[in-house]
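Q: Fold this one first, please.
A: Sequence and structure below.
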Amino acid sequence: MQGIKRKLVYVTVFEVGGIGLSMVLVTLLGHDPALAGGVAVGASVIAMLWNLVWNTGFEFWEARQIVRGRSFKRRALHALGFELGLTIMLVPAIAWWLAISWWEALLLDIGLTLVFVVYTFVFNLGFDRVFGLPASALPLKQEAGEAG
């Protein structure tokens, strides 16, 4: 599976799992379950849009690299870059939604980010095993053979 179909399946499955994980974690930290659900859904919408932008840009960069494939280092940089961008967008939203300080929102987001770095890494590994690598990560011979 390649292209926009791959991206849409990826982001949908990833965010459904992410909403459930976020709701549970925020509720376990003592916040009202309804507010936790609102934060999770709001963060998911932001994350889905960011995910499409980030992965498109990452694959654009990746396709131009001499070394192809997805090494541990490349996967880790992918996950960390995504989470850093998301943190910058989410801290103000979390602070507002939960009526907490930006500092508390940052701490909450850092905790969630640490969980999501692991979730993102494991999810990407599993997703690529189930659906195969995107064209940007395929060896050049295989990519050329599939294009014809």
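Q: Good. Now the second chain.
A: Here it is, same layout.
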Amino acid sequence: MPIQDKVAAANKVNDLLKAVLANSGLRLKYRISVNPPSTGPDSDRAEITVDLAGPDSPLVLSRGAELLNSMEHLALKALHLDTEEHDKLSFDCQKFKLMRREELKTAADVAAERVRKTKMPYEFAPMNARDRRLVHLHLANTEDLRTESQGEGARRNVVVYPKDYKPGAAKPFGRSRR
């Protein structure tokens, strides 16, 4: 279901967060912003953003922001959003996701240069769907490279290939398979 009424959706997220914070004892405050739709193919600003802050921010960001991602997941479920709509809602805490996006873009640029130099594929470590999408979009306009996702579930990752790479030629650089 697409977000028809963003203000109503933001109010629903607000009600959810009030309940979660009241029952969890987490010492956090939040700000919900409703933004106009993103323009451009690589615009990554969500239509509804939730910024968290407070004394328990380190807890929210521990273990790779597991709690932050869980709170976002609960909100997505409460709004009944389809998978394609998940990028319209974003939770962040102390600019963690902003820094993560910049980190991924830098890693994608480094991987692209490595692939150009070696003419061999580069395999990223497993990452969530939003991070994979960011890498794909960041490298989408490179004419000499292509990206693909491979694997399943929590082991799904991105591989950067030279444009004319033939499969089976050699094992990709990057993380080792387990």
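Q: Anything worth noting on the second one?
A: The helical segments are 6-24, 57-79, 96-118, 129-139.
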